[in-house]
């Protein structure tokens, strides 16, 4: 029996949940799905310049888990860019931090305070 998956701490949901070519395909076969925790590792490591170790501490998971999630996310980004597919960000095993955790330093931004309903609104845009 496998271990239960540990929820990953995420500071904020993406402002947009769909990315791709302007004349992007509409069939589901041309979509690549990225989880919110994969998005968070890309945000922390590539945008915020965290090390994988610091990212792991921030998300409350092991460094090896961050490495696996990060590699999966980068493969998905490459598939989107190279093959002209549409990226959708949704789902995953995560919980939003409350913005008051000392290790987080997210500042409780608007994106952070919103829940799944904001993500649902972004899907319709």
> What's the Cα radius of gyration?
15 Å
Number of strand segments: 5
**Percentage beta strand:** 5-15%
- What is the element string, with H for helices and E for strands? EEEHHHEEHH
Structural class: alpha/beta
For the largest sheet, list the strands in their spatial order.
Answer: 2-4-3
The first-to-last residue Cα distance is 41 Å
Number of helices: 5
Overall structural domain count: 1
Give average pLDDT, whole number. 81
Helix content: 40-55%
Which stretches are poorly predicted, pLDDT < 50 over at least 5 residues?
107-125
Mass-distribution shape: globular
Describe the main β-sheet briefly.
Answer: 3 strands, mixed
Topology:
Blueprint: E1 8-10, E2 18-19, E3 31-34, H1 36-47, H2 52-59, H3 63-83, E4 86-89, E5 94-96, H4 110-113, H5 116-123
Parallel strand pairs: 1-5, 3-4
Antiparallel strand pairs: 2-4
Helix pairs in contact: 1-3, 2-3
Explain what this protein looks like in three dimensions.
The protein is of the alpha/beta class. It has one domain. It is 42% helix and 13% strand. It contains five helices and five strands, in the order E-E-E-H-H-H-E-E-H-H. It has helices at residues 36-47, 52-59, 63-83, 110-113, 116-123, and strands at residues 8-10, 18-19, 31-34, 86-89, 94-96. Strands 2-4-3 form a three-stranded mixed beta sheet. Helix 1 (36-47) crosses helix 3 and helix 2 (52-59) crosses helix 3. It is globular. The model is unreliable at 107-125 (pLDDT under 50).
In short:
The chain is an alpha/beta fold. Helices cover 42% and strands 13% of the residues.
Keywords:
disordered C terminus; alpha/beta; three-stranded mixed sheet; 5 strands
């Amino acid at each position: 029996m496998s271990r239960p998956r540990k929820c990953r701490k995420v500071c904020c949901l993406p402002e947009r949940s769909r990315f791709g070519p302007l004349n992007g395909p509409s069939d589901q076969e041309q979509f690549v799905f990225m989880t919110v925790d994969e998005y968070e590792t890309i945000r922390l490591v590539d945008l915020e310049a965290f090390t994988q170790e610091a990212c792991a501490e921030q998300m409350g998971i092991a460094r090896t888990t961050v490495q696996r999630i990060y590699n999966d996310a980068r493969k998905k980004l490459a598939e989107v860019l190279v093959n002209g597919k549409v990226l959708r960000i949704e789902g995953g095993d995560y919980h939003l931090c409350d913005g008051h955790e000392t290790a987080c330093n997210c500042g409780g931004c608007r994106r952070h305070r919103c829940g799944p309903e904001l993500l649902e609104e972004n899907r319709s845009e």
